[in-house]
Structures are given as C-alpha cells and as structure tokens.
Amino acid sequence: MATRRQRWRLYALGGGLGHLTRATALARAAVARGHAVDLLTNSPFAPGLPLESWLGPGATVHRVDARADKATTVAAVGAWLARSTPDVLVVDAFPRGLAGELVALLPTVRAPRVLVHRDLNPVYVERFDVARAVDAFDLLVVPGEDAPFAQHPRAVRTAPWLLLDADACLSREDARRQLGLHDGDARPFVAVMGCGRPEEVAQARETAARLRAAFEERAAVRWLVPTPQDGGLTVWPALAVMRGVDVLVGAGGYNTVQEARATGTPLVARARPRLYDRQALRLTEAERVEDPGALEARVASLLSLLLQAGPRERPSAWDNGVHAAVEAIERVAR
Fold first, then answer.
1. Given this model, what pLDDT does residue 3 score?
2. d(Cα 6, Cα 307) in Å, to the nearest integer?
3. What are the sequence ranges of the domains in the chain?
4. What highest taxon heads this organism's lineage (predicted)?
5. Do domains 7-162+320-332 and 166-309 have the same CATH topology?
6. Quick check: 181 pLDDT over 80?
7. How far apart are CA 230 and CA 317, in angstroms?
C-alpha cells in the first residue's frame, strides 16, 4: 500500500480500445495500492465492458459517447476536470488532448500532471508543436517503447504495460476451456482479434471465417471480441486466456503486440493506418504481413511447426511496467 491514499484522474480519450486498455491497466494497479481513480474514456467499447467491477472499489469510470461531436466532447472534458481537484492528472498519449482542448484546460488544473508518452506520428508532433505541450507536464512515463520525447529530463521509462500480471492469467488448460475447447481437443488454437474501426471489425470477422475454412481440421479458429459481436467469442481481457492461444492474428496496436510478446504467443499482424500511431514500426519482420494471402501462408507455416513440435514453452512471468509507473506517479502526486 502507498503511504497515503491519492485521488487520480486518468484521461484516456481516443478511438478503439488501445487508450482505454492502457489506462485500465494503470488504474487497476493504482487501485490495488489503495488510490481512488477516476477514469474518462470515449472508447466505443467502454459501454459494453464491466470496467467498474473489474477495477474494483475505488474506481469510477466516466463514459463519453463515442458518437459525440467535438464541442460536446470538449465540454464533457471540461466538466470532468472542474469537478474537484485531484492529487494528480494522468493523460494518455495526447498532451494537447484528443481535440486540442487540454491546451486551454490544463492551466486550470491545480495538480501535478503526468503524460503517458508513447510513439506519435512526427507529422502530428511538428504540426501542433507537441514539444511545447509536453513541457506542461511534471512527469512523462514512457511505457516500453520509444517515443519522440523519451529523452526529456522529466521522462521515466518502464517496461510495457499489461492489464494483468502473469499470476492473474489462466493456465493453458483453463484458458482453452474458456475458449470453448473440450479436454480431448488437441488442435492448436488460432485467435483472430480486431476491434478498431467498423471496417476493420468486419475484416477480422472475414479473416476468422477464411482461416476457419482453411484450417478447421488442423486448428480451432475463433474470432475473439471484447464485447458481443455476431459471430465472435466474447472474451475480455484477452490477456487472461493468452496462454491457451497458439497463434494470434491481429493488427499492430500497442496492447496486442505487447501482450503477444509478453506471453510468447506467435503474432501474425497487419499494420493498420492510424492518424497518430505508427503500427508498422512496432511490428517486427517476423510478425508483419502485408495482405490476406501472406497472412494465411504465415498461419499455415506456424501451424505446421506446432503440429510437428507441439506447443512451445511459454514465459511463466513477465515484467509489467504499470507497477513502476504507479510508483513514479505516486512520487509526483500531492
């Protein structure tokens, strides 16, 4: 436990599930140390996730409608910041705010400010003078990958952030059961994930169907979704069952990549275009494919290796950077 209970505000606006996942990982670790956490998100997946029960007592989640226009979203941020003075404000990824609103709002926050600083598109960094916005923060926490201002004098690097520590994840056997495999089914499990833009969700569904048709005799193929989708198997957080996944098919988002690497899960991924994030830089040559044909061929190759050699040995533990991040934030909080 920390020496004193602190009141944290976590700003995690941004499309998809990435910002919310990273903030939820931090919130879970902070709540476990006795802090009160108030999390703001506009993820379209947030309404369908049991965030409060999963985070536990001490956490509050404010959900801004993902369909809201810019003015409505900015007003919601202003109202959230004006509610009371926290001990620390933590902002994920965007030092100016998603809509640039924090440039005007940050000076009204009479509390230390922390930026979760990951890779950002250099075009965005230069166009909007992100360097000046970064200087408004008392601490930059760099969560496991390089970033434009990682050498800033107030920057602290940590290992990648994960939603769960290794001892909170299911064993391979229990994970396979939760994924719908009976004990006598020895086929490798291929998980297809995709929860970004609507067209990417549709592509993930189609990818799962295509791989299932191609490999059903050799592997169990399922499309994993965080909230109910027609044709998908609802699993959240996916990290909890990752030990039961033999091949992970997805994109190059921060959480997918870091979870695959931490758990030793072979990843086959396409780099998705993003305004701020550069997924292609995050993926290694062994992980990245360019088109559906290459994806299917890579999965086939991995399945052949698995069928010859059996399931690979997986890490029994990993360094979860959220714990070092919580300790660093505690030091700057009032």
1. 63
2. 51
3. 7-162+320-332, 166-309
4. Bacteria
5. yes
6. yes
7. 34
The contacts of residue 208 (CB under 8 Å, 6+ apart) are: 192, 221, 222, 223, 231, 249
CATH topology of domain 7-162+320-332: Rossmann fold (3.40.50)
CB–CB of 332/155 below 8 Å?
A: no
Contacts of 75 (CB under 8 A, 6+ apart): none
| Spatial contact of 158 and 325, defined as CB atoms under 8 Å apart | yes
Q: How far apart are CA 4 and CA 81, in angstroms?
A: 22
Measured CA distances, 289 to 1, 144, 145, 250, 259 (Å): 44, 23, 21, 10, 18
- Burial class (CB within 10 angstroms; exposed 0-12, middle 13-18, buried 19+) of 63: middle
Token pair of 153 as six digits: 């004098």
pTM for this entry: 0.95
Tell me the sheet residues that pair with 9: 38, 89
Per residue in 252-284, pLDDT (tens digit) is: 999 999 999 999 999 999 999 888 889 999 999
Report the topology of domain 166-309.
Rossmann fold (3.40.50)
Contacts of 197-201 spanning 24+ positions with Cβ under 8 A: 197/15, 197/16, 200/251, 200/272, 201/229
Alpha-carbon distance of 21 to 254, in angstroms, equals 10
Q: How far is CA 279 from CA 23, 162, 328, in A?
A: 19, 18, 27
